[in-house]
Design a protein that fits this description.
The protein has 4 helices and 14 strands. It is mainly beta and 222 residues long. The longest helix has 13 residues.
Length: 222
Amino acid sequence: MIICFGGDGTILHAAKSASSCSLPILGINMGSVGFMAELEQTELQQLEKIGTGDYTIEPHMMLDARVRRDGKIVFSDTALNDAVISKGAVARILDLAVYSDGVMMSSFSGDGLIVSTPTGSTAYSMAAGGPIVEPAARNIIVTPLCAHALDAKAFVLDSRRKVTVITGPLHRKTAYLSVDGGHAFRLQMDDEIEINQSELVTKLVRIAKRNFYEVLNYKLCK
């Protein structure tokens, strides 16, 4: 078991290594929100439950994201929260076409797009108007960012779908892909960003026996 002292960023960072080794993570919140953390600083006495086995393991799906350029994979990473396509600092909107299993879902101009897991639905996706999905569910959430179109809405897809996003013309524009808030990879025109459910799974330790909606109300409504 990996015990993480920190915020959500610490857990996201640890998830990449932990999932590849099939190790569960217990998060202890040392930050502000710490939505994925199981315990607060005042609840360290509950660590005693680890010795008696009084805890459960909750699997959370992850996403594989890769950029295909001229038929070759030029970037790949794995996300517990989300993969975000966004514009640069210059105030010019992006043209994006979004496909599910090769069938067009949406085409719009805007600031970008968020493709998230249920775990990430309460992060950037929620702030952008996306739906809240229970973290143990298996769905892919597609949320446009400030879309300049009346019909550009958030979608909740089956986890078996493959989402493909194709970038439009980028003359005097910049576009980036960031996975779980990590290094921003610069995109080019006609890049294909492919996102699908990963074979890797993040295992989070549940020890406080709190309901998801109790956590939701405490963390986001206080």
